[in-house]
UniProtKB/TrEMBL annotation:
It catalyses: 4-(phosphooxy)-L-threonine + 2-oxoglutarate = (R)-3-hydroxy-2-oxo-4-phosphooxybutanoate + L-glutamate; O-phospho-L-serine + 2-oxoglutarate = 3-phosphooxypyruvate + L-glutamate. The modification N6-(pyridoxal phosphate)lysine is found at K195. Gene3D superfamilies: Aspartate Aminotransferase, domain 1, Type I PLP-dependent aspartate aminotransferase-like (Major domain). Homodimer. The gene is serC. GO terms for molecular function: O-phospho-L-serine:2-oxoglutarate aminotransferase activity; pyridoxal phosphate binding. This is Phosphoserine aminotransferase.
Amino acid sequence: MSNRAYNFNAGPAALPLEVLQKAQEELVDYQGIGMSVMEISHRSKEYEQLNEETQELLSELLNIPSGYKTLFLQGGASTQFAMIPLNFLNAGKVSNYIITGSWGKKALKESKLIGETFVSAQPEKFSHVPDISQLQLQNDSAYLHITSNETIEGIQYQQFPDTGSIPLIADMSSDILCRPIDVSQFAMIYAGAQKNLGPSGVTLVVVREDLLEDIPDHIPTMLRYDTHIKANSLYNTPPVYSVYIVNLVLKWIKEKGGLEQIEKINREKTKLIYDVIDESQGFYIGTVDKKDRSIMNIPFRLKDEHLEKQFLKQSEEDGFVGLKGHRSVGGMRASTYNAVPFESCKALSQFMVEFQKRNG
Ligand code: PMP
């Protein structure tokens, strides 16, 4: 389809064209039932099947070991920032956070509202992941929280800290399913859907069951993980349409060959853009240490704001969408999530080369 934009939005973000077309095809008549998936009961056998199948697809793609539960919740990743300490930061314990950017700071803020909270590491400048090999965690630690990919700063963990018996919890909102991971390293992972999983409205949580044993009694029903586990994510009305699109996205990833293949394509896509930055002799300025560069969000700057404005204006005129950096950091950012086609990245890299020729 030639009128699809070169979509580099940070989230909500590009969805695979094939998924949108399938959803369009099924919109008024889901699997021959004469209604859309939005018009049926979440207690119907069709929705229960969709719910089950979506969990199974995730288990398969992420290779989730036994002993973990998959949940589809609401309230976005931001609600998880609070639910994690509410459920796991019991009296007499401390929570630990490694801060590598803006989203980690927001998660930290919620934990501080709830209990004793400790920053285990935070670099002065958000340009890299701190050295995690020497990490010291107290015995009374409830968990260590990390942000596997900082969406605004474009900083991504390549290896995850070994926390021994202390639960490791990761916000994977902007890099879930971009590469294979070893789920057994984590006690919990979570992600708002609106980057790699589907539309906004649903939040994925994968949690190890033994974490749920000590949830304090006073935590309200909807904010307790055990409520949603007992009800298989059907305690209240779930975001049915969002889960439906997630289901289609997971099938699309499977058809692409799974996460190994997806990672390979993501690396090829981002190399096109990082190469232009690295070969520009300082015209484009990368803001992240090479070792920690993200394959999902590529922030870059130009030498002055005037030139950046020009870059954004001209790229928009040429059909590129979403390249403005987050308002908190400025500059540019290309978000290259799974559904962003190789061709869009190729086109952007060519635009960048041309822009430099005209303005360098
Ligand atoms: N964590 C990260 C890493 C994010 O990128 C975002 C959203 N951009 C959030 C948390 C917040 O997600 P939500 O809007 O779903 O609450």
